[in-house]
Design brief:
The protein is α/β, with parallel strands linked by helices. The chain has helices at 11-36, 42-54, 58-70, 92-100, 125-130, 156-169, 176-189, 245-259, 262-269, 274-284, and strands at residues 75-79, 82-83, 105-106, 113-115, 147-148, 198-199, 202-204, 212-222, 232-240. It has two domains: 11-115, Helix Hairpins; 125-284, Mannitol-specific EII, Chain A. The chain starts with 10 loop residues before the first helix and ends in a 6-residue tail after the last helix. It holds the Pfam family PTS_EIIA_2.
């Protein structure tokens, strides 16, 4: 725990950090789109990213571009006095300086820009201990208890609320309301609705464990993308530790490849029970999610 600073953060520094975090959110949204397959929003996201990069000071812009060339993450939070980008334990003095936010600080190891997150979604440690390390495929980050074959509601918030509550009820996270709030904030950046009626809603920065996936099916479908008439029916909701961001993109690619086949989607949509949905997703992703 970092003691609260006796000084107020520098507004200019805080503003720069907020801009960099927003920029990274756009970069990650673009990478998610690429992983899920070609889509018409890529050009729009690229324009927004370039516009934000152009607003940065030249040295900052160069550094950010260098970081993004090697990793999707350039700006990372501190968690338990470690850099969530590379896992390096940070000196207490550096952690305190980052918390004070009177200057921009980098990780001494990976050179990513560090920031302090005032609040975060917590995992329940007892659930983490029960998860085995030798599982394969979807079993590494999901289970039958996280399958919802009959989602209700008619809005994104109602659908995601059910999935967040499922994660809390099954002991994966502590606060479903906070998780839902962050999931909706992510949707406001750029919709996670993709082709074929599939959506990949998620929350990043859920530390203290591995990636977790809940799957749900909405038989009628909802307008998850506010700018499209297409309906989304299959929802793959994930909580993602910062360090798993690159793996998440590979996972989205594998899931998208499996669900791009109409017959696979029909099988998933036809599942009546959590057990059926779980088994059908496992079968569909056996070759694409390893």
């Amino acid at each position: 725990m970092v003691p609260p600073s006796s000084h107020q953060p520098d507004p200019h520094v805080q503003g720069t950090l907020n801009t960099l975090i927003q920029l990274q959110d756009l970069v990650l949204a673009r990478d998610e789109r690429k992983a899920a397959g070609p889509g018409k929003r890529l050009a729009e996201l690229n324009r927004s990213i370039e516009a934000m990069l152009d607003e940065l000071a030249a040295d900052r812009r160069t550094h950010i571009r260098q970081l993004l060339r090697r990793s999707p993450l350039a700006v990372v939070p501190i968690h338990h006095r470690t850099c969530t980008g590379c896992g390096m334990a940070l000196p207490v003095s550096l952690v305190n300086n980052v918390h004070a936010a009177r200057a921009i600080y980098r990780c001494p190891s990976c050179t990513r820009i560090l920031y302090y997150r005032e609040s975060e979604i917590r995992r329940r440690p007892e659930r983490r201990r029960r998860r085995a390390n030798d599982r394969k495929g979807l079993e590494r980050f999901s289970c039958e208890a996280l399958m919802i074959p009959r989602l209700g509601g008619g809005t994104p918030e109602e659908v995601l609320g059910q999935m967040c509550r499922c994660m809390e009820e099954q002991g994966f996270i502590e606060n479903s309301d906070a998780l839902l709030e962050q999931a909706m904030q992510r949707e406001a950046i750029s919709t996670t609705a993709m082709e074929h009626g599939i959506a990949f809603p998620h929350v990043r920065g859920v530390e203290g464990g591995g990636l977790t996936l809940a799957a749900g099916v909405h038989r009628k479908g909802i307008h998850f993308d506010p700018d499209s008439r297409r309906l989304s029916r299959i929802f793959l909701f994930m909580t993602i530790p910062t360090a798993a961001s690159a793996f998440y993109l590979r996972l989205v690619s594998g899931l998208s490849e499996s669900l791009s086949r109409k017959e696979v989607r029909e099988e998933v949509l036809g599942a009546e029970t959590p057990q059926e949905l779980w088994k059908r997703l496992q079968k569909a992703t056996r070759k694409t999610v390893r």
